[in-house]
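so ive been stuck on this for like two days lol. basically i have the seq below and the ligand is zinc ion, smiles is in there too. i just want the complex predicted, nothing fancy, no docking runs or whatever. if the output looks off dont worry ill sanity check it later, just need somthing to start from for the group meeting slides
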Amino acid sequence: MTINHHPSDETLLRHAAGTLGAGPAVVIAAHLEGCETCRRRVSEFESLGGAILEGMPLEPLRVDALARALERLDLPSLSPRPETIVVRQRHPVGLELPSSLHHCDVGPWRWLGPGFRWSKVSLPGNSDAKVLLLKGRAGLKLPAHGHDGTEFLQVLSGSLFDERGRYYPGDLDEADTDVDHQPVVSSDSECICLVALEGDTRLHSALGRLLWPIVGF
Ligand SMILES: [Zn+2]
């Protein structure tokens, strides 16, 4: 299995620095379970962060300081490599979920629309985290939507595509404020994704109006 879509360097840096929100961190951790390329990248950032901290006065570490340091170091960019996604425990939703969700409470599938289901993922101690599983039937066309923050989406099974590419199990899509898209589930099977919205991120347009009253975001 080849993973073609990875988190951005900024997101991996924030994950390494512990500044990523709890919701997105769960999704990134799910990606890291199956992506050795990104695990190595995070290790590089953690080593670099430690080196910077050792040489720094006792001030809060800024993420952009790390990014600037990385630019100077000119680290190699990510290159896709064959990977295997690791899924283990079976949950009530009938799917083996990434280990990063094992401490979470995963609810049953609930109706969201024709051929469209969702399951609430509750993080202990983080009631504000916006994390859910989405399941779409084969061929389902989701409502077009934009974001006022970043949406992190990890494909767990099946596949989907939008104007920017096609996403298979193990792939992670980051969609920020620049992205207006209309994901479509591939016609050969249903698709299940783990999704987190960062902070106060809301989804615009029809999908937002669909999710907000039911899911709360
Ligand atoms: Zn990756």
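The longest helix spans residues 36-54. The CA atoms of residues 140 and 146 lie 18 Å apart.
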